[in-house]
Amino acid sequence: MLELEEEEKEYLEKEMEKIIDWVSKLEELDIEGEEVVFLTNTPLRDDEPEQTLKRKDILPSQNYDGIFFIVPKVVEK
Amino acid sequence: MRIGELSLKELRDSIKKGEIRCIDVIEDYKKRIEKFDKELKAFITIDWERAYQRAKALDEEKSKEGLIFGCPIAIKDNILTKGIRTTAGSKILENYIPPYSATVVEKIEREGGIIIGKTNLDEFAMGSSTENSAFFPTLNPWDTKRVPGGSSGGSAVAVASFMSPASLGSDTGGSVRQPASFCGVVGLKPTYGRVSRYGLIAFASSLDQIGPMARNVEDVSTMLSIISGYDQKDSTSFKSPVPPYHEKLNEKIGSFKFGVVKDDELEGIDEEIFNAYKGTLDLMEKIGGKKVYIELPHLKYSIYVYYILATSEASSNLARYDGIRYGFRLEKESLLSLYQDSRSKGFGKEVKRRILLGTFSLSAGYYRAFYGKASIVRQLIKNDFEKAFKEVDFIVLPTTPELPFHLGEKSEDPIKMYLSDLFTIPPNLAMLPAISIPVSLGKGNLPIGMQIIGNLFDETNLLKVANLLEKNICFLYNELTRRYL
Fold first, then answer.
1. Contact (CB<8Å) B304/A16
2. What pTM was estimated for this model as a whole?
3. Dihedral of the alpha carbons of B237, B239, B245, B248, in degrees to the nearest 10
4. Range of B244's domain?
5. Distance CA B61, CA B444 (A)
6. Is B72 part of any domain?
7. Touching check for B243 and chain A: CB below 8 Å?
């Protein structure tokens, strides 16, 4: 999610158009019948408990009250 | 003996023999960094206290075991270092202190390495000049009006200007090799899966790979021996034994075949680069190689495929920077504006451009024509290389189409900047290992690098041939030695 300023919108629109036009070079290539081979052989580890990072070490000190992350109120009365 | 000139092996051996202490090494490097980094700006963060403490602790060790015992190593600032700020060159992570270290950092420390500092980069590794850093641009030590390349510009400059004997960068489309070429050092992108990506801040996960940089092939090999290997924490890392690359370097290579494309595929490149390329091909023949012309019919589509796939993956990977869990946060009335404003103010121009392009390529109406098609063409490029490697052992290409350019020269034209990665992108798409080694100096004493691409997981032979080539090249480093050592 990005919020762009007016002047940003203006130049990004132009640039995006140029870049999309540029990468559209791929259109000239006929790929009828071709397929992608996705990587599927990623290994799994044994399901055994082990010590990884400790919860208290990885949670931030700011915007966190010990149980929840703190955000602006999202529910109206 | 000048400490700054010593290779990793020489440094380690001197320390082991008791000729110098780790603390002397750090002291020596600190002097140079303080003197020259004010201008070159290779580093974002340096924690001297930590480096000294580590050096002292190492000096107290009796056994002094470790492949790089006492050697300072610079780390690109998108690789996590526990307790040392890691910014990815972005305002959104300006104050981020990681709670853990990347696997590669742990491995370096296990072998006695001392993390000397975190090096500058284009924000989230998106760029080819290090000008996209949210903090400052890094300058090329050969000519400070020019860029050092990118995105691992800081890591390349640190090594070139004797501020670190070796460093780590990351390479998604050339980010190790292109700056290595621009700075006259050696840079390697290993096979995808050779090195764990755990703790590397993700840009495009199917292309990212961490790679070493140093002033010679031997040091790069030593670094690769250390950082390679399967890691349970990265399911794309590869389960195969790691040969001691640095020990195999001088083993006989015998006769070999190397592939080249027809000259018209290289149309438009700088004349000096073209001549250096031709010279390198002659040299490859001189050291026992047989030149074979190969066909890579889809090579010319690599750059378009790359900019669609890499931006798509980036748009997804960067969704985690939401201002909530870590990183830059702008307090707002509503949750929606907190997300929007934190991201919009936290990310720089190029990052936003790529998020937008990636989101577009993945969007319902355009997915087939962009992301879908690019994935298929990537496969065709991979197939081309697979076929070529049935006939040859290596493929030689220039690393960059041009000499290091001036600061600001391409900032206003993203496509011009993207073209800088023309020759480095294909190995990333095909997951192949590739090395850039400096071969000559062009006009204005600017370095020129050549790229050798190896077969999948064949770093052993790739490094062997690069080592042999290096021994037959007289690369003139005098200018930098005089200036910075």
1. no
2. 0.97
3. -160
4. 3-259+390-484
5. 47
6. yes
7. no
Which entry of B133, B151, B170, B440 is annotated as an active-site residue?
B151
Provide the token pair at B126: 């998106």
Q: Does residue B138 lie within any of the structural domains?
A: yes
B215: domain CATH number is 3.90.1300.10
- CA B362 to chain centroid: 28
Structure-block tokens of residue B112:
């006695």
Is the pLDDT at A61 greater than 90? The verdict is: no
For the question of residue B167 being annotated catalytic, the response is: no
Window 188-217 of B: residues touching A by CB (8 A cutoff) are 206
Going by pLDDT thresholds of 50, 70 and 90, the confidence category of residue A40 is low
Q: Which of chain B's residues have a Cβ under 8 Å away from the Cβ of A72?
A: 331-335, 338
Asked if the C-beta of B456 comes within 8 angstroms of chain A's C-beta atoms, the answer is no
Classify residue A36 by burial, with Cβ atoms within 10 Å: 0-12, 13-18, 19+: middle
Q: Chain A partners of B326 at a C-beta cutoff of 8 Å?
A: 60
| Nearest chain B Cα distance for residue A59, angstroms | 8
What value of ipTM does the predicted structure carry?
0.91
B24 occurs within a structural domain: yes
The answer to the question of residue B12 being in a domain is yes
Q: Which residues of chain B are under the pLDDT cut of 70?
A: none
Residues 6+ apart with CB under 8 A from A42: B235, B236
| Mean pLDDT, rounded, for A11-27 | 91
pLDDT digits (tens, 9 = 90+) for B328-374: 999 889 999 999 999 999 999 999 999 999 999 999 999 999 999 99
Average per-residue pLDDT for chain B:
96
Identify all chain A residues contacting B308, using CB atoms and an 8 Å cutoff. 23, 26
pLDDT band at A39 (very low <50, low <70, confident <90, very high): low
Task: Find residues 216-235 of chain B whose CB sits inside 8 Å of chain A.
Answer: 232, 235
For chain B, how many structural domains are there in total?
1
Apex CA B350: angle with CA B349 and CA B353, to 5°?
A: 90
Under an 8 A CB cutoff, do B235 and A42 touch? yes
| Assigned token pair, B203 | 């840009």
Average pLDDT of the segment spanning A7-30: 91
- The catalytic residue among B76, B91, B189, B410 is B76
